[in-house]
Design brief:
alpha+beta; two-stranded antiparallel ribbon; 2 domains; 248 residues; Chorismate lyase
Length: 248
């Protein structure tokens, strides 16, 4: 692992901060359901940002199911709270890390495990290595139904790692950056359609055998060291990925 020196976590992108403030105003009723948000130009002037930044912030509100935009009409508020089917933009590392920051984490269990050959391959290590396995549930604010059940693996030899995990309320990746001075430079993500197993369904309050998405993510630093492996199970009716592809 790199140096353990502490680092200050980066602030969310400006568009996300604007989106968060607009979500707050919608939630408190400043912009009521049925009302129009200020125009793009008005938002540019209000926040001192570019039109591109405003459009990205409004896209976040649309992804959350809070607003609907129509040409020549404007951006109308259609809901006070985000839709239960959580939509995660996945266009950048910042998007993936922001998703973790926007949802609430509950750690169910953490324990040291001695990995076998199959898991060693996934963790790019050797059978017999010891890793810390963390099981957690994640939910959107105010929603009793979890968005996902996640099993995460981190280096069990990090100083006081179990103490930091026990106190965890936000993203595990952010804690690693803040406490141990590591920097996530690359994330590899693999998504598969699966059926919920009995234990997963029980914890997620979902139907046994129901459809789900399994997202396996590997977090690397700049020199290619694996910092974290997470396997997240999302009930199919509560989650969708949103990706915007732009021709170069």
């Amino acid at each position: 692992m790199p140096s353990r020196s502490r680092s200050v976590p980066a602030k969310p992108p400006r568009y996300q901060r604007v989106a968060d403030e607009l979500m707050h105003h919608i939630g408190t009723g400043k912009y009521a359901v049925g009302a129009l948000l200020p125009t793009e130009m008005e938002l540019c002037q209000q926040y001192g940002i570019s039109r591109h930044t405003v459009r990205e912030a409004l896209r976040r509100l649309r992804d959350a199911g809070l607003v609907s935009s129509r040409r020549r009409v404007g951006t109308e508020v259609v809901a006070r709270m985000p839709a239960l089917n959580y939509r995660q933009p996945t266009n950048s590392i910042a998007d993936l890390l922001q998703y973790a920051a926007e949802t609430q984490l509950t750690v169910l269990r953490s324990k040291n495990v001695t990995i076998g050959a199959a898991l060693a391959e996934q963790l790019e290590g050797d059978a017999g290595d010891i890793w810390l396995e963390v099981t957690s549930l994640r939910a959107a604010p105010g929603d009793a139904q979890p968005v996902c059940l996640t099993t995460t693996y981190v280096d069990a030899h990090l100083p006081d790692i179990e103490t930091h995990i026990a106190q965890l309320t936000g993203p595990l990746s952010a804690m690693l950056e803040r406490v141990y001075g590591v920097k996530i430079a690359r994330i590899e993500q693999n998504i598969q359609a699966v059926a919920l197993r009995a234990r997963e369904a029980k914890l997620l309050r979902a139907e046994d055998g129901g459809p789900a998405l399994r997202a396996t993510r590997r977090y690397y630093d700049a020199v290619g060291t694996l910092l974290e492996l997470s396997v997240a199970i999302h009930p199919g009716d509560r989650f969708s990925y949103v990706t915007s592809l732009v021709r170069g």
